[in-house]
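Course assignment 3, question 2. Fill in each field.
Student: A.L.
Task: Predict the tertiary structure for the chain below.
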Amino acid sequence: MTDDQSEIAVQAARWVVEEGLEYGPAKRRAAKALGLGGRGSLPSNEALDDAVMEYISVFCADTQPRELLALRRLAWVWMERLLAFRPHLGGAVWHGTATKNSDIHLQLFCDDCKSAEMALIDQRVAYEVRTVMGIKGESVDVLSVHVFCAELKEDIGVHLMIYDFDDVRGALKPDVKGRVPRGDARAVQRLLSGANI
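Answer field:
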């Protein structure tokens, strides 16, 4: 990694942790703020992962484990509510780098993509629909809700990415660090049962 990439990673990590920014926007914002240009000069997500972990260990070691546990518990509540749609937890809450500023990202693998939306309507849950880039680089719908987290005493964004059932194939392929990028309800339950806070 170049010195510029390292500098961008350090600045981006601060915004990921303190503001809950996603990696892409955090890297671009850091590059712009530091006057360093071009996509080629951006650090990899793996380098930013390392910078985020270091930032947490230095500045948030006393609060982050409890915040992460609260977010995982809230994610589990939503996974139980949406169990019929084979929910998988991803992002910072899954990887263990989440703070109270992080959102919860659940991927739903549905037989009928509109069925998750109908379930939210049936449960009288207000949501917003938007489109983002999905697991395989395709456009997918996201149903976003804001939920009060009693443990953290604040609202948390919960984003439900809607996939076809067949998209689950390959969704658990490990990343370059050998980490599984998301976990199903059983995997999240194991994380919660192993929490020693």
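Instructor remarks: Strands lie at 88-90, 104-110, 128-133, 139-149, 154-164, 182-184. Residues 64-193 form a domain with the Beta Polymerase; domain 2 fold (CATH 3.30.460).
Grade: pending
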